[in-house]
Each structure stands twice: as C-alpha cells, then as structure tokens.
Amino acid sequence: MKLKVLIAEPSQVVTEGLQSMLNDCAKLEVVCTVDDIGMMEERIMVKHPDIVVINPCILPYTRQIPANLDLPEGCFAVGLVYQYFEPSFLRNFDAIIDIRDSKPDIISTLLNLEQIGEHKKGASDGASELTKRERDILVLVAKGLMSKEIAEQLNISIHTVISHRKNITKKTGIKSVAGLAVYAMLNNLMSEPKSDELQE
Amino acid sequence: MKRFSMFNENMKMADLILIKPGLILLLPRFNIPLGIGDKSVKALCEEHGVSAEFFMLVCNIYSFDDYIPSTEEVLSTDMSPLVSYLEESHRYYLGKRLPHIANHIDRIAKQVKGTAGSVLKHFFSEYTKEVVSHFNYEEQYVFPHLEKLAHGQADEDYVISDYVPGHTNIEDKLDDLTQIMFKYLPEEVMAYETIGAVFDILQLSEDLKKHSLIEEKVLVPYVEHLERSGLK
Question: Helices in chain A by DSSP H: which ranges?
C-alpha cells in the first residue's frame, strides 16, 4: 500500500516540484494539494492522508502542531520549511523537510515515518485480544462508568484509563459506549446484565 | 472551486443512475417518480418543479466522495428545496430504513442464545431514539429558523451557531453495529441474515454521512449567510 501524502503549500512551483518528486517513489502517492488551511482541513477529512506536508507559513500564527491542528490519529505532520523557525515550534512536527534537502533525503524522511507508525500501533495489529486489564475496564465502561470513576475504582490515573480505552476501541473497532456494552455481553464479560446499565 | 468531470444537469438521469446506482434513492426525496425514460436531469426537474441546480448539488455530493461544495457554490445555488429535501430524507430514514433494519435485528436476536439478543435489540432501539431526537431538534429549531430568514423575517430566537457544536455524529454507532455484526456475533446466527443486515446498515451509514455533510457544508453556511445579511 502506498502512503498517501497531502501537500499544504502556498507556492505552486514548490507544490508541483515536491509532488513530482514524491510521485516518483513507488511507496508514496500525493493524493491532494492545497494552498490554505481551511481547504487542508476539509481535504484531510475526505482524503485520509497518512502524511500531511505543511508549510508552517499557512498556519495561523498561534497554531501549534499537532496540538491544535486536528490531524486524525495515525496521520503524521511534516513541516516544510524555507527559513528559520523556533526549534520549540518545529518540535511539534513529526519530521521536518528543509526546502534545500535532496530528493533521496526528502523521500527517506517520509518513509521513516512509516516505521515510527508501525512501532506506535504495533500492539493493535499484533494482538487483537484484549488484555485482562482492558477487559476489566471494558466491563466498567459498559456499565456506564465515566473514565474518572473507573480511575478511582481501580486506583489508577485517568490518563491510564483513557489510554486503555483507546486501545480497546482500536482492538475491537467499536467506539460508542453502547456498542462496547453489546460487545461485552456477546463475549460473556458481563455477569449480570441489567438493561438500565446499558444506557449511555 | 468548480471541479473536473462532475455530473451536470444536461446528462440523462438514467445515465447518472447507471453510473451511480445509489442516486436512485434521491428521486423520491424530490418527488420525482420513476419512469424517467431518456429525459435529461434538467427536463425531469423542470417537469416536477425541482430546482435542477440544487438537485445536481446533492447528486454530486452523493456521487463524489472528495467533493465538498464551497460556500460560494452554496450561495449561488437555489436553496429553496433544501428544507423539504432534508425533511423528506428524515422521513425516509425513520419510516423505511430504520424499521427495515430493526426487522433484521429482531430476526438475528431470535437466533442468539441468552440475553445477548435482547442487548442487541436494546442497542438498536436506543440508537433509533437518538436519531429521532436528533431529527426532531433540526425540524423544531433549525428548519423553521431557516425558513423565517429565507422569507425575510428576522428570527432572534435561534442562531445557527447553537446548532454546530451539538450536531452529533449519528453514524458512528451504526459503524459500531456493523463491527459487532460481522466480527462478534455468535456462530449460531445464519450468515445470510447477518450479511443482509450488514449491507443495509452500511448503506444507511453512507447515506447518513452524506446527509450530515449536506447539513454541515450546505445548510450551515447558507443559514450563516442569511443571518449576516439579515443584520445589515
């Protein structure tokens, strides 16, 4: 599968140059190019790129990446820079391409991201079975407890609960609490079902 | 931004449907009966008093996944059929699709041992309630607001910015349901029943996604525009 790339860059010369370089690589495919931030957000919604190459110039001044930029999970933000930016700002990107980088360098920067991605999501691809801890949390979620309540009950931090919940959703493919309740029931994880416990 | 090769109103309606069979579902929402012969979209729309422009906007949204109309396009299109189109779609989902899927679920639930069947039914009936209240809200607040503004009346009681954050995603739970159906249902359930249900749910989910897109990218910018021009 090719990695889908979206380029968000105001200069047509640069966009087309980069596009033709990336399309020469068998593992990359530029699916869309845009020149402003509004279009970028819309296109991300419909094109589901794996990598977004962004010239930070098009970002509103206060916007930090990826903190406030709503990139979907698993989508990498790569900065395309012409000039000096604060290192603290550039750290918000998953990788940086300098306009003066050579073609092989640019391509390898993008391909390296994929390896980071594999590593990140390794758990979900390898083992689709829920761990014991995840099953415990799933049952509490299905009973309608909020993350905060689960954290208190199990004596763990709320961040841990949220990260478990993310993994549960990744592994099962189910997002809603009601859906998770059905999953828990079908897999006999719930001992005593009560219909009022299934409500969100 | 006008784009490459989209459908246009001079094409034959029958050709459109041959290319994108799903478009046939749009005809009843515009009160266009079958028996369309070889007429063009424009001719059929004129015959049935539908704005061809608006019809094409909806057709293109349904046919091309990467097409999102720009605000300029929305504002230059005749929006008079918008509310009746959306209401008709609501009626179709509530009156036809959801009961049809509910029947599938009932039959599947009967084949599942123990309480799991009733849990599945419960999930779907809760989902249906959610959809009903979602549609009710739009029909009670958003559509009347739009119609008042479109008729040049001021309407201080409601603003569209109240609608945007509350416009919840009603497709996610359907996607959950498809996952449950084909990944986690016990083996005793007849495959054909489940497959039939999954097809229907996927189709409805796709339809609802386009429906939401029309609300967010057509209805909202249009009402925002009316609210702004009312202020002047």
Answer: 12-23, 37-47, 87-90, 103-126, 132-142, 147-154, 158-172, 177-186
Residue labelled with tokens 């094109």:
A47
Nearest C-alpha neighbor of B66 from the set A113, A85, A48, A7: A48
Angle at B210 between CA B96 and CA B180, to 5 degrees: 65
Interface of A with B (CB under 8 A): 32, 42-43, 45-47, 172-176, 178-179, 181-183, 185-187, 193, 195, 198-200
Query: Which ipTM score applies to this complex?
Result: 0.75
Q: Which residues pair with A28 in a beta bridge?
A: A3
Rounded CA-CA distance B58/B124 in Å is 28
CB B75 within 8 A of CB B221: yes
Nearby residues of A191 by Cβ (< 8 Å), 6 or more positions away: none
- Give residue limits of the domains in chain B: 13-67, 82-231
Task: Map out the domains of chain A with their CATH numbers.
Answer: 3-126 (3.40.50.2300), 132-198 (1.10.10.10)
User: Are A76 and A51 spatial neighbours (Cβ–Cβ below 8 Å)?
Assistant: yes
Look at residue B11 and give its three-state secondary structure.
coil
Rounded Cα distance, A79 and A69, in Å = 13
Min Cα–Cα distance to chain B from A90, Å: 30
What are the φ and ψ backbone dihedral angles of A174, each rounded to 5 degrees?
Answer: -110, 130
Measured distance CA(B84)–CA(B88) in Å, rounded: 6
pLDDT (tens, 9 = 90+) of chain A, 200 residues, equals 788 999 999 999 999 999 999 988 888 999 999 988 888 888 888 888 989 999 988 887 666 555 556 677 778 889 999 888 877 778 778 889 999 999 999 998 988 887 766 555 544 444 468 888 999 999 999 988 999 999 999 999 988 999 999 889 988 889 889 899 889 988 888 765 444 544 44
Do A176 and B176 lie within an 8 Å CB cutoff? yes
